[in-house]
Structure formats: structure tokens, C-alpha cells
Specification:
By secondary structure, the protein is mostly beta strands. It is built from one helix and 13 strands. The strands form two sheets. It has an eight-stranded antiparallel barrel with strand order 1-4-5-6-7-9-10-13. Strands 2-12-11 form a three-stranded antiparallel β-sheet, with no helix packed on it. A hairpin with a 3-residue loop joins β4 and β5.
């Protein structure tokens, strides 16, 4: 009986240790580029040449590992962030149309992490996000030496799925974190003109980020 009790206790301790919650807080900044974004028919220039639109952003995040061992961890990573200059750019016959907006982002990742050494880890995550328009959408027309910028009201939220690949390197009391993400919106950004709603573009973006996180 004592041996059975000892085995049960040992199993319980190992299980509690494995599922003990580890947590971290972090901050990250990124550079983004549109990659695969699509333009709605109302704003599409037939025969156009799509161009890159560069942007950036920053976010605060937390990591909660609900399962962890010495080498492997599974957890969740909620974030609050801002992305600047999302958009699309088209060129045709000397005319350029650039459409951009800024958004408030709330993603939640399911994460996995593998500790290569005590000082280096690799990991990744996948999860949904919701993106809210900040301010007005800007449409800039350029032709020859002239340009015109129009601000348009935009309402509603965009929903999507984000993919994240990252690595962390021990530095002081925390880790420098480097990541690459792909943002895939499911529904388009819309504008409202004369009480009517129009689709504008659907974001697809690649981001390159760097940040710092501290466990506690």
C-alpha cells in the first residue's frame, strides 16, 4: 500500500510540475509589408502593377505556458498592438493609387516553444485576431507632379488568422525575441461614402519583429 501511495504521489507531483503555469511579459516592434493583399473591384486599376507598402507597429503581450518541461512548452499569447500604414499600392500609366490605414490589433496565439539550450529557444504560434480601424483611411492619387489625398471614414472590424515563428536569446534577466509573422484578414476593410459601405482592400501582410520579454 505504501509503495502504491508513493507511486501515486510521485505521479501527482510530476503532473503538477508539468502543468505548472509559467508566465512572461514582453514588448515588440515590427516592420511590415503588404504581401498578397487584394483590392476590391471598386478600387482596382485594371492592368495595374502592384507595389509594396511598408509599415510598422508595436505591441505589448503576455505569455502563459500551461504545459512545460525543461525543453518544451505549450501556452497562449494574448496581445494588444497597433499597426501603422496597412495598405495597397497600384501603378498604371504613370498614375499611382495608394490606400492605407492604421489599426488596433488584438491577437491571441496558441504557442509552442522548444528550448535548444538554456539560453536559446525556437517556437511558433497560430491564432485569430480582430483588427479595428484607427482614424480614417487615406487614399492618395499621384500623377505627374501632382498628388491628392482623400480621407474616408471606415467602420467595423476585420477578423483574421496570424502565423508566428520566433526565436529567443537570453539577455540579462529576459530574452531578446525575433519573429516573423503573416497576417491573413478574412474580410475586407470598408469605407463609408454618403451612407453607403464599400469594400476597399483585404490585408495580407508579412512582419519582421524584435522584442524583449521577461519571465516572472
Amino acid at each position: 500500500m505504501k509503495k502504491i501511495l508513493a507511486v501515486v504521489m510521485a505521479f501527482a507531483v510530476s503532473a503538477v510540475s508539468a502543468f505548472a503555469v509559467d508566465a512572461a511579459l514582453g514588448v515588440r516592434g515590427d516592420v511590415s509589408m503588404n504581401l498578397g493583399s487584394t483590392v476590391a473591384d471598386d478600387y482596382k486599376m485594371d492592368g495595374n502593377s502592384s507595389q509594396l507598402v511598408w509599415g510598422g507597429g508595436f505591441s505589448l503581450y503576455g505569455v502563459i505556458d500551461f504545459y512545460s518541461t525543461d525543453q518544451f512548452a505549450v501556452g497562449v499569447q494574448p496581445e494588444l498592438g497597433i499597426q501603422f500604414n496597412n495598405g495597397v499600392k497600384q501603378k498604371k500609366n504613370g498614375m499611382t493609387l495608394t490606400i492605407t490605414n492604421n489599426t488596433f490589433e488584438i491577437p491571441v496565439f496558441l504557442t509552442m516553444k522548444y528550448n535548444v539550450t538554456p539560453n536559446v529557444y525556437f517556437g511558433g504560434g497560430i491564432g485569430p485576431y480582430v483588427s479595428f480601424q484607427m482614424g480614417k483611411l487615406k487614399a492618395k492619387y499621384e500623377y505627374s507632379n501632382t498628388s491628392t489625398t482623400t480621407d474616408c471614414s471606415s467602420k467595423g472590424a476585420a477578423f483574421g488568422l496570424a502565423f508566428d515563428f520566433k526565436s529567443g536569446v537570453k539577455a540579462g534577466s529576459g530574452y531578446f525575441v525575433f519573429d516573423v509573422r503573416y497576417l491573413l484578414n478574412f474580410n475586407p476593410t470598408k469605407v463609408e461614402i454618403s451612407d453607403k459601405s464599400y469594400d476597399v482592400f483585404t490585408r495580407r501582410a508579412l512582419t519582421f519583429g524584435i522584442g524583449y520579454e521577461v519571465k516572472f
